[in-house]
Write a structure and sequence with these properties.
about 450 residues, alpha/beta, 5-stranded antiparallel beta sheet, GMP Synthetase, Chain A, domain 3, about 30% helix, Rossmann fold, 11 helices, binds zinc ion
């Protein structure tokens, strides 16, 4: 079993025509379940005139109305407390509470039953097996186990695979590094921000070279960094390990993963999720590869608070052709490229913080941290970029390259401020590097991709 490349060979290499049939069968089942158990969903579907009898083919799915996050906040004000009327099971069947981090507003609560939780860890098992986790691995999880789902299901899945799991809960960064060293852990899971932060602490505060520790693979989630080539390279170089991308969300599930062939993108677990890409301008579903749009996603097996045609605002695009690993699950190119509501217009130009990250991390003399601040002087937008110089690096040696690359990749000019290494804020989970200080009404959030 250990040499077998797939967690579930039948599902992961299923011919596409069969896979699509499976998706339709599962969609009908979850739609039926939700229609008959969730008051909120029944009202939504009835108002669009869609009943379970109307879903006969995958094309019919487009008739099903999308669910926005704001709708979830609304239904959670209703009974039963605290989840509201999209809850499809009696409250006593809910076995775990989670909530979203609330970065885009009021947090959304997420109930799961034990069956849902087994489904979560099954989804993560696909991820970990594809990234080379095997029973011989000792997996260190440097995450503050709490109300955020983060790496909880990764933890359960690693146990399910037969790995040995070390929960690195409330330890501080230095203690975590010492534990990894002491136990010779072989794998870990964290946000890209924290992976880089840990490497920095090991190297510069403890005199430990993380690439000489025993970690040989790292699974990232929570931020797009592992899909940004220069950030991925920094992490791989620092730890001497393979770094893999994964994307999931509290209200969706663990829906995608990079495989060991590192196809510069992530497979969508199409046996568990139905992903549609919607053109942001026209609202049409994009089938062809290489065209960006926002993800509409359905979790095909989640029952307590179903996720049906959820408007995730994640910007993605289909890749061309199948992956060399043999999985028939489609790949999204470059992972999650950004968020539709994250991409802001500055001086009339669309700005993606990920593009700035790609530039900063590709310049050798700069530290990992940076900050982008957008404000207004009169009617003119201004962007300030704060970067850190690595010790003994002269500003003059990188200034031109940084300016040129920024202009090339983002089409914008910046006021760049250089700081001493270690002076910008460090983060343990998700970073807050992008600040838009312009007045709310002045922010043009129109997203044209
Ligand atoms: Zn693959």
């Amino acid at each position: 079993m250990d040499h077998q490349p797939f967690w579930n060979p039948v599902i992961e290499t299923m011919p596409r025509e069969k896979l699509v049939q499976l998706q339709l069968k599962k969609f009908k089942r979850i739609f039926n379940w939700t229609y008959s158990h969730s008051k909120f969903h029944k009202g939504l579907f009835d108002s669009a005139g869609v009943t379970p009898d109307d879903i006969r083919s995958l094309a019919d799915i487009k008739k099903v109305p999308k669910v926005e996050k704001s709708m979830m906040r609304d239904f959670q004000c209703k009974d039963p407390f605290p989840y509201g009327d999209a809850l499809c099971v009696p409250l006593e069947e809910v076995s775990i509470f989670r909530q979203t981090s609330g970065t885009t507003g009021q947090p959304v609560y997420q109930p799961d039953t034990w069956q849902d939780w087994e489904w979560w860890s099954e989804c993560w098992s696909y991820i970990l097996w594809a990234q080379g986790y095997r029973p011989s691995d000792r997996v260190f999880i440097p995450f503050g186990y709490n109300i955020f789902v983060a790496f909880w299901a990764g933890h359960y899945a690693a146990e399910k695979l037969g790995c040995e799991v070390v929960p690195g809960g409330v330890l501080d960064t230095q203690s975590r590094i010492l534990k990894i060293q002491e136990l010779q852990a072989t794998a870990m899971m964290a946000t890209p921000t924290y992976i880089l932060n840990m490497a920095d602490v090991a190297k510069n505060k403890m005199g430990i070279d993380p690439s000489l520790l025993s970690i040989n693979k790292i699974t990232c989630a929570g931020e797009p960094g592992a899909g940004i080539p220069s950030t991925k390279k920094r992490m791989e170089d620092a730890w001497g390990a393979k770094v893999f991308d994964h994307s999931g969300a509290t209200e969706i599930g663990a829906w995608s993963y990079e495989c060991a062939h590192q196809p510069c993108g992530m497979h969508v677990n199409e046996a568990m999720f139905l992903v549609e890409i919607e053109d942001i301008k026209t609202g049409k579903i994009i089938e062809e590869p290489g065209k960006k749009g926002k993800m509409i996603i359905t979790a095909l097996d989640r029952i307590a608070q179903p996720c049906i045609r959820f408007d995730s605002k994640d910007v993605i695009e289909w890749d061309f052709g199948p992956c060399s690993c043999g999985r028939t699950f489609r790949v999204i190119r470059g992972g999650v490229i950004g968020r539709a509501d994250d991409i802001t217009k500055v001086k009339g130009v669309l700005l993606s913080p990920a593009a700035i990250e790609e530039v900063v991390r590709s310049i050798e003399g700069l530290g990992d941290e940076f900050e982008v601040i957008v404000d207004k002087q009169g009617d003119i937008d201004r962007i300030k970029l704060k970067v850190e110089l690595k010790p003994e690096v002269a500003q003059s040696s990188i200034e031109t390259a940084l300016k040129d690359q920024l202009r090339l990749k983002t089409n914008l000019g910046y006021r760049i401020e250089y700081y001493d290494y270690g002076s910008l804020p460090r983060y343990d989970v998700k970073a807050k590097r992008f600040k838009d200080l312009r007045k709310k009404h002045a922010i043009d959030k129109e997203c044209r991709l």
